[in-house]
Design a protein that fits this description.
By secondary structure, the protein is an alpha/beta fold. It has helices at 2-6, 13-25, 30-36, 45-59, 66-76, 83-93, 100-129, 134-150, 160-177, 189-195, 214-229, 242-254, 258-263, 268-282, 296-304, 331-352, 385-388, 398-401, 440-445, and strands spanning 203-208, 232-237, 286-289, 309-315, 356-361, 391-397, 410-418, 424-431, 436-439. Helix 12 (242-254) packs across helix 14.
């Protein structure tokens, strides 16, 4: 018992004091330190109060030195009779501010160790109580561990001053990148102008009637992002096998008819093109899972383990299993299940902090209208789908309904909902033999 009472959580008072001393003797390092540690990383409540004082001073562009920090501590109500002596001690025991980031790293590591210990205790308690069943507890445990790895507190309140600093950093990073859009580029420039690219934490829905090519456009985007970003792309195909997807990718990248590829009867030149395309595709970090009985929780758990994740593709929504694996089909129940899954996908996009693209079927409601262009209400089992999605794209081709139309294979990508900008229609070129969508401008150039 004495041994248990004497055990302390991991911490380094010396490192905490060195960080604070460095910030007091050299105000130039304050901004760097604030980006590396936060107040809750400090084990000592006294040190935490001083850090919060310096944080507020930095927010108001005040210079830090022993006198100004003491005065601000009085204003913030964290001053006591020993504060002056302690501040002097911090200054005297800090040899130089040059190593402040090393000190900060120690403070951060100790805070992470404490968080791991807390999480481990909570997981143990959940397992002993057994509330909700093993799968529910496993999912909760994975979320907690993933949150630690990402360095995010999913339940904490953040001050607006900190959020504004993060927003400023994002804007600066976007400006330095030289990209036309803040998000990942889809390869369809006209569409990116509407959506501002594929942005982190966005849920993007691509909806169409069967055969319009929603899988194709999702694969086109996945391949372009994989080639241009260097990120890992996770593709969950609940309908088509991974071999079928690979065949489509080969066709679109080699510009050889998909039907011809399936026969294998190719000329020497075509085999050379296939080899070149295969080498290029193999060099991309594209991962495919074609298990047809996956739930959103399963996908989330697999994606959490990918360190360089950039984009998630799901094809398609109505084929997904509910969290419990019970894929109800009765009208009202199924609508609730799909609505729950769409909400879980939005939460997954926020947790993973990457764009999630999900294909979805449209109902037959548009078939009875004279203008068969899709509307938001045409989403099958819509429920909360259109509410959860940040962007909803619908594919429409006039020649799908009218074979005699003058302009064949011209598709409309209708932006039905767009939290990042305006709605409207983007014209794309559909190339059926290569199962590929391209922008009209790019198609004319090729």
């Amino acid at each position: 018992m004495d041994e248990l009472l004497g055990r302390q959580m991991p911490h380094s008072i010396e490192a905490e004091q060195a960080v604070l001393g460095s910030m007091i003797i050299d105000s130039r390092c304050v901004g760097d330190v604030l980006g590396a540690v936060k107040a809750s990383d400090f084990y000592s409540s006294v040190n935490r109060g001083i850090f919060e004082t310096i944080y507020s001073m930095f927010t108001y562009s005040m210079v830090t030195d022993p006198v100004t920090v003491l005065e601000q501590m009085r204003t913030n109500g964290v001053w006591n009779d020993g504060s002056a002596g302690y501040i002097l001690e911090l200054v005297n025991i800090t040899p130089t501010s040059a190593n402040v980031m090393e000190y900060a790293a120690i403070v951060r590591d100790m805070a992470l160790l404490r968080a791991i210990a807390d999480t481990g205790g909570d997981i143990l308690n959940m397992a002993l109580e057994g509330t909700g069943g093993a799968n529910t507890i496993l999912e909760a445990a994975e979320k907690r561990i993933y949150g630690l790895r990402q360095g995010r507190n999913s339940t904490g309140l953040e001050p607006i001053s900190k959020i504004l600093i993060d927003v400023y950093d994002q804007m600066t990073l976007a400006a330095k990148s030289g990209s036309k859009f803040p998000g990942l580029q889809s390869g369809l420039d006209d569409l990116d102008r509407y959506t501002m690219g594929l942005n982190n934490s966005d849920l993007i829905l691509i909806a169409s009637r069967p055969g319009m090519g929603k899988t194709s456009i999702a694969l086109n985007i996945a391949m372009h992002v994989a080639k241009t970003s260097g990120k890992t792309i996770a593709v969950f195909s609940l309908e088509m096998s991974r071999e079928q997807l690979a065949m489509r990718l080969l066709s679109s990248e080699s510009f050889i008819d998909n039907k011809k590829l399936q026969t294998g009867r190719l000329s020497t030149e075509e085999w050379r093109k296939i080899g070149t395309a295969a080498a290029m595709i193999s060099g991309c970090d594209l991962l495919i899972n074609d298990n047809p009985s996956l739930s959103v929780a399963d996908m989330n758990a697999q994606c959490r383990r990918l360190p360089n994740l950039g984009l998630v593709i799901i094809d398609y929504l109505q084929l997904m299993q509910s969290a419990g694996g019970n894929n109800k089909t009765s009208g009202e129940n199924r609508q609730q299940v799909v609505s729950d899954m769409s909400r879980m996908m939005k939460i997954m996009a926020k947790e993973l902090n990457v764009p999630v693209i999900c294909a979805s079927q449209l109902s037959r409601a548009n078939e009875s209208r004279s203008d068969k262009r899709p509307m938001l209400s045409d989403l099958r089992e819509s429920g909360a789908i259109e509410q959860d999605a940040d962007i909803v794209l619908a594919l429409y081709r006039e020649d799908y309904y009218n074979k005699e139309v003058e302009h064949q294979n011209i598709a409309e990508c209708i932006v039905l909902k767009n939290r990042r900008g305006e709605t409207g229609t983007v014209e794309l070129k559909w190339i059926p033999e290569f199962t590929t969508y391209t922008s009209l401008e790019r198609h004319h150039q090729e």
